[in-house]
């Protein structure tokens, strides 16, 4: 579609950005609201699963749709993605417990994977590599803007309205996006001579599921050396071996293995994996610090985290413009990762005495680095492969970032739980029991029992009501236990952010080995666009240095 005139390209991009905004707004609105939603539904032990299942299902559909859209075109998948996402959002708002919410978030993830995979691939269809930097930055900036309005609105809704509106408020926007794509996005003919790799798709899914379950449960629900965790990891390893064997035989593999012999593809995707681990860890747990440690409301949490997303928007826009102007990307990638690593370190220094201003400054630094680095690695992957592999290559970049986020959140949940328990033991105050009389009235016992769960800190209003309902002689004990729990949560989150900084150091090391090749000013057609590729050509064409 690169041959289309400028006006037609702008029309198509407006429709694509509308679709992506719908998905992004519905994702980001949950970030500050989810702690309160989980507090009301119950089931903190499943908290990370609300994120994990979304990233799991979106990761699976991202890579599958990437390949399918190379064959059938982008339009049908972005339309189906919007429809599935709308359904998932509607069902999330109807959830009666945490298990239902997790299931419906999984449906949302299926739709999100389709939308995000096709949205970023369209940039490669429409624009030459050197122009893509600006548009990758624009798409990332649009997601950043959604991150500004989404969390603030989500916090306001759970503070002042029924929480279900968090999932329903943007449903009309989804219908508008669907109509725009239907009317404006051009159809393309199916690519002849390629078949769907059903075996590879199934085996890829069967590899990801046990691996992610293992990382989600290890250290929290089960010990790392337990039979369950070892069994899941062994199952993932076996499925991975079968997947590799199937891909080597497939005529049109869902993920051509030859791509991994391209050093730029491999380094970029591994760096994206680490970037996702650090990024999602910071995004998920920052509201915990602002609400649980600093004691602010969900609405205020949205205001405090807003500067991070604004700096992300700025970094994406500026980075994209620099890439388009210079045609170079390596120094920009290094700068972005270094800045984000510094931001994660600053977040790890926060504690009970951290002011709101300091927290905002640290989040601005983190967001700026993320905004600069995030679009670069998708651009490098697109620039390193042939046009016929653009969909699967772009999807792989998003897959590795999402997998990094899924595993990163799981590992950081383990860090959080272990450090929280360690701190409480160190303080010698098993929450809800220290300093209490042996006999307590039922209502008082219920109030102190609530403090066994750190999610109680996420609702300051509820804490005040519990304290006010206690006898005067127990209110001081209750307040002391709350402070002890806040201190333990602060200590635990410090470890989470420091872990994110270590992950970013790994991303920096990898980026040093990123090979830089010129960004072409115009796309060169290749033989595969003039005629169908013969069987097995996908593997041979992928081997580009």
Please describe what this structure looks like:
- With 545 residues, the chain is mainly α.
- It is built from 19 helices and no strands.
- The radius of gyration is 24 Å and the shape is globular.
Counted beta strands: 0
Number of helices: 19
- The mean pLDDT is 80
Q: Tell me the series of helices and strands, N- to C-terminal.
A: HHHHHHHHHHHHHHHHHHH
Instruction: Report the sheet with the most strands, covering strand number, pairing sense and barrel closure.
Output: none
Beta-strand proportion: under 5%
Terminus-to-terminus distance: 26 Å
Structural class: mainly alpha
Overall shape: globular
Short précis:
With 545 residues, the protein is an all-alpha fold. Helices cover 77% and strands 0% of the residues.
Topology:
Layout: H1 6-41, H2 47-72, H3 75-93, H4 98-126, H5 129-160, H6 165-168, H7 171-184, H8 198-217, H9 227-249, H10 263-293, H11 298-326, H12 330-348, H13 356-384, H14 390-427, H15 442-450, H16 460-468, H17 472-511, H18 527-530, H19 537-542
From the structure above, extract its key features:
545 residues, globular, mainly alpha, disordered C terminus, single chain
């Amino acid at each position: 579609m690169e041959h289309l005139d400028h006006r037609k390209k702008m029309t198509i991009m407006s429709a694509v950005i509308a679709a992506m905004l719908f998905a992004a707004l519905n994702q980001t609105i949950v970030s500050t609201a989810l702690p309160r939603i989980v507090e009301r539904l119950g089931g903190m032990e499943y908290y990370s699963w609300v994120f994990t299942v979304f990233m799991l299902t979106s990761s699976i559909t991202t890579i599958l749709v990437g390949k399918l859209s190379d064959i059938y075109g982008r339009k049908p998948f972005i339309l189906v993605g919007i429809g599935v996402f709308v359904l998932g959002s509607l069902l999330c708002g109807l959830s009666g417990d945490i298990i239902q919410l997790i299931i419906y978030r999984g449906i949302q993830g299926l739709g999100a994977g389709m939308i995000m995979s096709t949205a970023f691939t369209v940039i490669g269809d429409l624009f030459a590599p050197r122009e893509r930097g600006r548009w990758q930055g624009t798409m990332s900036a649009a997601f950043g803007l959604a991150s500004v309005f989404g969390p603030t609105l989500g916090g306001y809704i759970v503070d002042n309205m029924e929480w279900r509106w968090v999932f329903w408020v943007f449903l009309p926007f989804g219908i508008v996006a669907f109509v725009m794509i239907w009317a404006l996005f051009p159809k393309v003919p199916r690519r002849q001579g390629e078949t769907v790799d059903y075996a590879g798709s199934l085996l890829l899914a069967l590899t990801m599921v046990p691996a992610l379950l293992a990382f989600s449960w290890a250290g929290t629900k089960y010990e790392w050396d337990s039979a369950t965790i070892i069994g899941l990891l062994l199952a993932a390893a076996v499925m991975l071996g079968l997947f590799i064997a199937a891909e080597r035989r497939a005529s049109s593999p869902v993920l051509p293995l030859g791509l991994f012999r391209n050093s730029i593809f491999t380094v970029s995707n591994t760096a994206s994996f680490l970037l996702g681990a650090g990024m999602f860890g910071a995004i998920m747990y920052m509201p915990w610090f602002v609400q649980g440690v600093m004691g602010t409301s969900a609405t205020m949490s949205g205001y405090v985290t807003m500067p991070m997303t604004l700096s992300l928007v700025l970094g994406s826009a500026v980075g994209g413009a620099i890439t388009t102007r210079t045609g170079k990307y390596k120094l920009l990638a290094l700068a972005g990762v270094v800045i984000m690593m510094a931001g994660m370190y600053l977040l790890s220094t926060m504690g009970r005495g951290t002011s709101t201003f300091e927290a905002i400054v640290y989040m601005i630094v983190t967001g700026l680095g993320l905004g600069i680095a995030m679009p670069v690695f998708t651009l490098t992957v697109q620039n390193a492969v042939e046009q016929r592999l653009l969909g699967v290559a772009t999807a792989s970049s998003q897959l590795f970032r999402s997998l990094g986020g899924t595993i990163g959140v799981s590992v950081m949940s383990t860090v959080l739980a272990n450090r929280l328990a360690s701190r409480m033991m160190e303080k010698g105050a098993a929450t809800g029991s220290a300093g209490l009389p042996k006999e307590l009235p039922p209502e008082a016992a219920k109030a102190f029992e609530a403090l066994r769960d750190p999610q109680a800190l996420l609702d300051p209003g509820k804490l005040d009501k519990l304290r006010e309902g206690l006898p005067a002689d127990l209110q001081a004990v209750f307040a002391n236990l709350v402070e002890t729990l806040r201190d333990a949560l602060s200590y635990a989150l410090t470890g989470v952010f420091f872990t994110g900084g270590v992950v970013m150091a790994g991303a920096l090391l990898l980026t040093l080995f990123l090979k830089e090749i010129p960004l072409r000013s115009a796309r060169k057609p290749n033989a595969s666009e003039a005629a169908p590729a013969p069987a097995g050509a996908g593997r041979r064409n992928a081997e580009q240095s």
